[in-house]
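Working notes for the structural subgroup meeting. M.R. asked for a predicted model of this chain before we commit to crystallization trials. I am recording the input and output together here so anyone reviewing the notebook later can reproduce the run.

Input as submitted:
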Amino acid sequence: MRRAGLTADLVTRVAADLADEVGLDAVTVSAVARHFGVKDASLYSHVRGIADLRARVALLAAAEFADLLGPAVAGRSGRDALVAFADAYRGYARAHPGRYAAMQQPVDPDVVAGAAGSRRGIELTYGMLRGYGLDEPDATDAVRLLRSTLHGFVDLERRGGFNDPRDVEASWGCAVAALHLLLSRWREALSA
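Returned structure, recorded in token form:
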């Protein structure tokens, strides 16, 4: 029996908010059920379990991120697009740490393929990189480099891993500038 007022979307949004507050690992079906003042069983009409709930949070986050990313890179190319993309990425990770963590977990590729937000985020990423004139397989390699670099920086920053007097903002600017330089000279760099 479905609890009046509960929907899969509402349960997902509450789980996403909870993830931002206490961390993705602390999000359980029981914790979400407590938020609603219901028993765990009441949520199983809306989500299949914790893996499903976390996948839903990941898809919600991917859609939110794409909604943020689209306007950030619109009308920009090259370095301007890269800086806007990187800043949007970092900003989302900072503002929504639990949602961001959910986006980093593996989700069934068939589920991702059916999610408009995920597809839009992927398309925006490849679109931003088109300004660098990369064809396949270079474009996919560049996406992986970009994601690895940005994720590594924001993850280390979040964990307090930059325990040095050097200004973190200056280091962020250097990292993005280095990515731009490499992307601009991709073929030259790989043939060296």
